[in-house]
């Protein structure tokens, strides 16, 4: 197991990158602590797989360096870095048995056959495939194949980190839960450093202790699932996490008051927007904190979506689309009005969150 | 409930029936007809039973052609399959080199058989051919017209030149279908170049290789035009393969009965081999 330091890493797929836009990974500077479970979350093309491949050594970064436990590994090959990676589509060696698949990485490294046997049997127990050991790997289901890919990493006891590149994409929904909880269990029992790339927020939030949200080649926020939900640092995090995403609307700020059109909203504190900040000021509030009732600002309800557990009300406030979440048994009043729960209000300047003073 | 009979459906299959009848069944039956009768011309036929078959199966000449043909097929397979895999492995996977290589590889396949034969017939001549003249000028005793070994070498070289591309293209198609993740996983697992070939590339080429072997075996077992143009089956009978022999008997000597019997035996052998290949291939599939 290892602590992974990503030091000012930038990467471009172009031979001669000039502008910022040429970089698939603008600049990432982050430490993955030893034994942590991290999720890299972001939309397609945000650079999360690039970052993962840089950690595993399949890509060499254009700039910056990578440390494992303080040792520079930037120029080491994938094999020398001793990491495990599970890919989007299960990679198994078709012609081998399940047993031989797991033994493959050890045999390649010249481990004595007695040790291979012991390690493979242990791993088979861990991934719950002991009864399949003698079967040809190609006859297995997608989730079993994915477990074999994982097992080929686990079988090396000295592996530095286990990296997952959207590993549950091809797995049936009901098996996703099973596999994810098995992963969690493995993490708790053996304390592997795990980095899990996904664009599915549920997967990221349930798997990881720390979620790294990436957007447009950079990290926009690192935090626990609760932090990402309550205090999105960037409006993108607000949109991307939560369903429906955060309501974001342009406002004017004066002291402890925000104005949208003719409506005034009291804030819990005065936002500390930098002096001379010319950028757009926005107010963000999650639909869960929008209270629909008979008091507050008048809205026009356009649609009510019944999701089974709760309802999502789509409405317009001062001409802006806004969503609110209400309970399954609540109904929309005749003259609907909304109030913003102060605990859920965040203020953004230039899309970045600003702190509010007392 | 009474069934509705609609006999119009039969008219729909009629074109196919006619086509197959005229292209396959009727010619085959004509051959069967010849194979059991004898004639002295004037369209007078005598029933001959299985005599022609016995004659062919007991003739040394038939078995020698057969053995030559099998040896030929074996040699070209032993050269073309490994060579084809080797070339396919070393072809570029992306960039401008891909179309260039593909066109170069496809070129020999586009040349008609008799033209290939003519090219090599001229190429190998010691008086004007580039290959033959160069070899003799360098002091090699090369003459495919007189020397059986030289004739064999020329015919085999010609077939390798003409058909290795087919194996290459099939293998290449198998190789490019392997997702990158396999190579990345192999790197992570610390696999050697050989292990990557043995456990990733070869299994993925498995099916196309079977097709390649089947096609090349069948083609070489029925080979006629190219060696006929280059050597005419000589010197002596050294490059007389089954189909050349068959034509010699049928057209050269006008022994229609034995030729027909030989055709049928030849046909049955190919049918048997096709069946064996088919069974092997479907068994491989079932194992998956």
Automatic annotation (TrEMBL), chain A:
Entries under InterPro entries matching the protein: AAA+_ATPase (IPR003593), ABC_transporter-like_ATP-bd (IPR003439), ABC_transpr_FbpC (IPR015853), ABC_transpr_MalK/UgpC-like (IPR047641), Mo/tungstate-bd_C_term_dom (IPR008995), NA-bd_OB-fold (IPR012340), OB_MalK-like (IPR040582), P-loop_NTPase (IPR027417)
Domain ABC transporter: 4-241
Classification via SUPFAM superfamilies: MOP-like (SSF50331), P-loop containing nucleoside triphosphate hydrolases (SSF52540)
Gene Ontology cellular component terms for the protein in this record: ATP-binding cassette (ABC) transporter complex, substrate-binding subunit-containing
Localization terms from the record: Cell inner membrane
Topology term for the membrane: Peripheral membrane protein
GO molecular function, one term: ABC-type ferric iron transporter activity
Keywords, comma-separated and alphabetical: ATP-binding, Cell membrane, Membrane, Nucleotide-binding, Transport
Coarse class of the protein's main subcellular location: membrane
Coiled coil: none
Record-stated family: Belongs to the ABC transporter superfamily.
PANTHER family, per database record: ABC TRANSPORTER ATP-BINDING PROTEIN (PTHR43875:SF14), MALTODEXTRIN IMPORT ATP-BINDING PROTEIN MSMX (PTHR43875)
Protein name per its UniProtKB record: ABC transporter ATP-binding protein
UniProt source species: Mesorhizobium neociceri
Automatic annotation (TrEMBL), chain B:
Pfam families: BPD_transp_1 (PF00528)
Keyword Membrane: yes
SUPFAM superfamilies named in the record: MetI-like
Cellular localisation: Cell membrane
Entry keyword set: Membrane, Transmembrane, Transmembrane helix, Transport
Highest taxon of the lineage: Bacteria
A single BP term in Gene Ontology: transmembrane transport
ABC transmembrane type-1 domain ranges (all copies): 66-277
Membrane topology of this protein: Multi-pass membrane protein
Membrane-spanning residues: 12-36, 70-89, 96-115, 160-183, 208-225, 264-284
One cellular-component annotation, GO: plasma membrane
Family statement: Belongs to the binding-protein-dependent transport system permease family.
Protein name per the record: Sugar ABC transporter permease
Lineage, uppermost ranks: Bacteria, Pseudomonadati, Pseudomonadota, Alphaproteobacteria, Hyphomicrobiales
């Amino acid at each position: 197991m290892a602590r992974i330091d990503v030091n000012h890493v930038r990467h471009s797929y172009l031979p001669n990158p000039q502008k910022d836009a040429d970089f698939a990974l603008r600049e990432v500077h982050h430490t993955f602590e030893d034994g942590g479970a991290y999720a890299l979350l972001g939309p397609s093309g945000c650079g999360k797989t690039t970052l993962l491949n840089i950690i595993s050594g399949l890509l060499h970064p254009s700039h910056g360096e990578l440390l494992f436990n303080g040792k520079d590994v930037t120029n080491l090959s994938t094999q020398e870095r001793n990491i495990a990676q599970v890919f989007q589509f299960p990679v198994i060696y078709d012609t081998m048995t399940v047993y031989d698949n797991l033994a493959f990485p050890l045999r390649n490294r010249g481990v004595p056959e007695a040790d291979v046997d012991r390690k493979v049997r242990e791993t088979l127990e861990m991934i719950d495939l002991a009864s399949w050991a003698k079967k040809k790997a190609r006859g297995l289901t997608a989730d079993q194949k994915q477990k074999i890919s994982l097992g080929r990493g686990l079988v090396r006891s000295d592996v530095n980190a286990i990296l997952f590149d959207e590993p549950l994409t091809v797995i049936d929904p009901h098996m996703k839960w099973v596999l994810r909880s098995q992963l969690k269990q493995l993490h708790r029992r053996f304390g592997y450093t795990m980095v899990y790339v996904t664009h599915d927020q549920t997967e990221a939030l349930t798997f990881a202790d720390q979620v790294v949200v990436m957007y447009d080649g950079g990290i926009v926020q690192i935090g626990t699932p609760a932090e990402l939900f309550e205090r999105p640092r960037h409006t993108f995090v607000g949109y991307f996490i939560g369903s429906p995403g955060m309501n974001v609307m342009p406002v004017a700020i004066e002291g402890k008051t925000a104005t949208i059109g003719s409506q005034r909203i009291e804030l819990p504190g005065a936002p500390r927007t930098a002096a001379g900040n010319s950028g757009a000021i926005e107010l963000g509030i999650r639909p869960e904190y929008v209270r629909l009732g008979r008091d507050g600002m008048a809205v026009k309800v356009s649609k009510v979506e019944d999701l089974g557990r709760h309802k999502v009300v789509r409405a317009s406030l001062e001409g802006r689309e806004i969503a609110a979440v209400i309970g399954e048994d609540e109904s929309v009043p005749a003259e609907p009005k909304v109030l913003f729960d102060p605990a859920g209000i965040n203020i953004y300047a230039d899309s970045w969150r600003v702190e509010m003073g007392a | 409930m009474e069934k509705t009979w609609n006999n119009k459906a039969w008219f729909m299959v009629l074109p196919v029936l006619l086509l197959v009848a005229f292209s396959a069944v009727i010619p085959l039956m004509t051959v069967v007809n010849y194979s059991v009768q004898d004639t002295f011309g004037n369209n007078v036929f005598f029933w001959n039973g299985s005599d022609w078959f016995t004659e062919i199966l007991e003739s040394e000449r038939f078995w020698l052609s057969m053995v030559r043909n099998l040896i030929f097929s074996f040699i070209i397979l032993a050269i073309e399959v490994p060579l084809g895999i080797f070339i396919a492995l070393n072809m570029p996977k992306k960039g401008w080199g891909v179309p260039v290589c593909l066109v170069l590889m496809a070129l020999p396949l586009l040349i008609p058989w008799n033209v290939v034969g003519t090219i090599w017939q001229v190429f190998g001549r010691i008086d004007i051919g580039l290959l033959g003249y160069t070899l003799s000028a360098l002091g090699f005793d090369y003459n495919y017209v007189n020397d059986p070994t030289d004739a064999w070498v020329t015919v085999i070289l010609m077939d390798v030149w003409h058909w290795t591309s087919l194996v290459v293209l099939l293998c290449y198609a198998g190789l490019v279908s392997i997702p990158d993740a396999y190579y990345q996983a192999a790197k992570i697992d610390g696999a050697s170049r050989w292990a990557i070939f043995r456990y990733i590339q070869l299994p993925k080429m498995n099916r196309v290789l079977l097709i390649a072997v089947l096609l090349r075996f069948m083609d070489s077992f029925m080979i006629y035009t190219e060696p006929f143009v280059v050597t005419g089956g000589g010197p002596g009978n050294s490059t007389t393969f089954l189909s050349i022999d068959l034509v010699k008997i049928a057209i050269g000597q006008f022994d229609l009965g034995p030729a027909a019997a030989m055709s049928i035996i030849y046909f049955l052998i190919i049918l048997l081999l096709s069946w064996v290949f088919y069974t092997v291939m479907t068994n491989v599939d079932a194992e998956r």
